[in-house]
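pinging the channel bc i need a second pair of eyes. not urgent but kinda urgent?? the chain im working w is below, pasted from the shared doc
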Amino acid sequence: MTAAPATPSATRAPRRVGLIGWGAIGRVVAAALAAGEIPGAELTCVVDNRPLGDTAPAPQLTLAAALTRCDLLVEAAGQGVVRAHGEEILTAGADLLIASTGALTDDALTARLRAAGPGRVYFTGGAVGGLDLLQAARALGPLTDVTLTTTKLPATLEQPWMDEELLHRMRTATGPVEVLRGTAREIPAKFPRSTNVAASVALATGDPDAVRVSVVADPAARHTRHVVEASGAHGSYRFEVRHLPDAANPATSQVVPYAVLRSLAALAGRPGMIL
């Protein structure tokens, strides 16, 4: 007897996606899902702590209600959501795609998320490339020297903890000014909305304390710039990216929601993806 052919991926039930966050990233992701641009994924609901009225292309639900309807939640609302609700989402059986990777520099939280289930946790690389290659290189041996230099407009880097002297230097700068230097564990906590790239590099290379980060304010920075350099006994790597800032939220890059959509397409099983 001839065995029945495998069910084509096109006939699989679509991923039922809940989007957490209705900001610069969430609106782009929601629009693409609602327009059917990600085959195999459909927008089921939006979760946000503000009333959205009829602005969202899917019903606005509480997180509890979303977990009864969705099998994949996309976090696009900030590190606090990952800390407060990551385990809850995974324990309920939904997968979780994280955009705010800065939360994952907390080793205890990361361990709990990886141990939780039956849902699975994923993260998107966001505004930086080369993470897949760094993960592959890491399998050959440790990367002994990893640096990241992030350059942004001064106004996008201002934080409540900054003193008047630093703020004055940033606001009156006529050229690049180093705002802070630290590790990939320290920097995302200082800039929770604008340095998730540091955490993403750390996740790829395996050690947030070994990634040295420099945050630079540049009044002439038309593009957000990230330079990643890494080396080990087996080779050396350098990646440089320049992105236009998002018009609605200059602290993030215009490309970030499209990185989220690419990750969604992979999770939905789109063929031909580079993984």
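so The beta strands are 15-20, 41-47, 72-75, 95-98, 121-123, 143-152, 177-183, 211-217, 224-232, 235-243. and The longest helix spans residues 79-91. — does that match what u expected or am i reading it wrong
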